[in-house]
Amino acid sequence: MPSNAELAIDARGVDKQFGKLRAVAELDLQVQKGHIYGFLGPNGCGKSTTIRMLTGLLTPTRGEINVLGMAIPQQAEALRRHIGYMTQKFSLYEDLSVRENLQFIADIYGLGVRESKRKIDELTATYHLDAQRQQLAGTLSGGQKQRLGLACACINEPELLFLDEPTSAVDPQNRRDFWEQLFDLSDRGTSILVTTHYMDEAQRCHQLAIMESGHIRAKGNPQALLEAMPLHVIEIAGHRLRQLKSHLGQFSEIPSAAQLGDRLRVLVDKKIDAPIPWLLEKSRAVAGQLTPPQLTQVAPNLEDLFVSVTGKGLEASREAEDVTG
Amino acid sequence: MLLASLRRIKSITTKEIRQLKRDRITFGMVVMIPLIQLLLFGYAINTDVRNVPVVVVDQSHSAAGRWIVEAVKVTQVVSIEKHYASAEEAEAAITRGEVRAALILPPNLTEKLAHGETLGQWVVDGSDTMIASAISQLRNMPLDQLTRQDTQKKPTFEVALFYNPEQRSAVNIVPGLIAVILTMTMILFTSAAIVRERERGNLELLITTPIKPLELMLGKIVPYILVGLVQMTIILGLGHLIFDVPINGAITQLLMGTLLFIAASLTLGLIISTIAKTQLQAMQMTIFVILPTILLSGFMFPFEAMPKPAQWIAELLPATHFMRIIRAIVLRGGTLSDMQFDALWLIGFTLVGILVASLRFNKRLD
């Protein structure tokens, strides 16, 4: 466990209740300085609520939050100078040009005339917005808007960046470029908390937390999480995969089976030592006689991890919410 | 075909009603606008002018003088606020807007009474034609018990109309229109200001920056101050050119008075914008303020003719105070120091309003 001075974010036992809905439950989160920390989860799982609590926009119902050594929400005002925040929805002024938006944010952060000019030149160059400087923000493409959002969030050279689903409206090429820029920032010492629902993005983070219905289901280094996953991943090639899938669904040792084209990707509990013979036997009733070459054990990916840690315990957490609500 | 169409219409109607019920401010306005406004205006609108505040200058100090004052009082057209020794004091009170008229009874009142001559003089602030005509009705007031019918050949009183001798209503309406139009535009502009940022999602970013609520509020109202001054210039300039409205006061007084009112209206708009969740709600609340401004502020009906409770409500509206200030300055050549109470009220309203708006504007989302 890193010491306090090395932590950009330290949240312990954080709860947020909206009426009867428990949006975030017992959240523990430690983000090391200089890391890109990914928050993976479906929409509505509490990612945005968590970010809003960490930035002091929402007051937690319970728990302690410390961001950059400041107690939140008490010292939220002091924190604002040191963070950048990119909201999920484009939150700049669509009726101002790229340059005017940057100028506005620079003025709010109190940058001097010369400094803000230098900074705006630098940011428009870094984020490939030079050609769009005079263009109204409302007319930018999804990728350009996202780069402008990041440029504005970086104008005060924040120590910590909060990015709430920054790539949700962006094509794959722009997403790749965007992540390159995040690593550049990280390389210069900026800590980043980024939420996403893309597996490939989650894979790129130094640290990762998987969130579902307000709970963190798993957290750690993505590679370590995959290695520690208590499941075999078997792919079955063959026919009648729909029937096979619904048949396999009845076994408690198989938490998930998902079809990928002409293959079925099956997760099998590690307590089964030899998953392939086991599966051959279990699937005989439906798929007829499968031959061993049709079954291959493959390396787990983040999606497998995500499926394995979410879903189960969902019922339990819902019951808990009913009790607390 | 028709059935399917009706079903689709019904589905839209159901959805609208559901949304309306969930938008509690709009839902409240649906009920409140007609209810409150009707009660307010049904009760307050009263074109029978009564209880016009006046002063009496009785230079005769005679029994007849006291009797005439009593006789004037029982007509209920006027309400005697004060007694002054000289006509100059009385005229100053009219300029300050404390009273609308003065009854001046000459030293030789008893003599005039005996000869059946005109007994005294009403000096009237003629800018409000409704008030002027109410008092003019007293001109031929019969004083049967003091005089014999046959000796009284001349009118009982002589009426001198100040400020608007031709009794043109434009003279009174144009300055009042400044108050109404400024209320409308100033409150409308600012009430939408913060709501718009909230609706467009700009606010979430803005509140994570170091900007302070007060800075945001002040920054937002400054551009509209200029807009307000432009509007005032247009209304008064055209009023002067086209309707020949006299501008008797100093331009600096006019500017300062208008600035006070613009500031008060803008803060009211800001308060609304911290309450409203959508631009539509902001608009509705603005209308909620504008209607009484038009009807109760003294713009359409003389303030003094309204019942007391309506006057108390009117006193809460910045426009009522500005109506007095602008008419005093434009029509009667008054100054802000003549209108201290109203000027201080507007300043107080602005300061309290800015404070309330900044306190209400939380840099949080919950």
TrEMBL record, chain A:
Record's keyword annotation contains ATP-binding: yes
Keyword Repressor listed: no
CDD domains, A to Z: ABC_DR_subfamily_A
Superkingdom of source: Bacteria
Keywords on record: ATP-binding, Nucleotide-binding
Pfam families noted in UniProt: ABC_tran
Gene3D superfamilies: P-loop containing nucleotide triphosphate hydrolases
Domain ABC transporter per the UniProt entry, residue ranges: 9-238
Gene Ontology MF: a single term: ATP hydrolysis activity
Family annotation (PANTHER family): ABC TRANSPORTER G FAMILY MEMBER 20 ISOFORM X1, ATP-BINDING CASSETTE, SUB-FAMILY H, MEMBER 1
Name of this protein: ATP-binding cassette domain-containing protein
Organism, scientific name: Shewanella insulae
UniProtKB/TrEMBL annotation, chain B:
Highest taxon of source: Bacteria
This protein's name: Transport permease protein
Topology in membrane: Multi-pass membrane protein
TM annotation in the entry: 25-45, 173-195, 221-242, 254-273, 285-303, 343-361
Organism: Shewanella insulae
Subcellular location: Cell inner membrane; Cell membrane
Domain ABC transmembrane type-2: start-end pairs: 128-364
Family, similarity comment: Belongs to the ABC-2 integral membrane protein family.
Record key words, sorted: Cell membrane, Membrane, Transmembrane, Transmembrane helix, Transport
Signal sequence range: none
GO molecular function, one term: ABC-type transporter activity
GO CC field: ATP-binding cassette (ABC) transporter complex
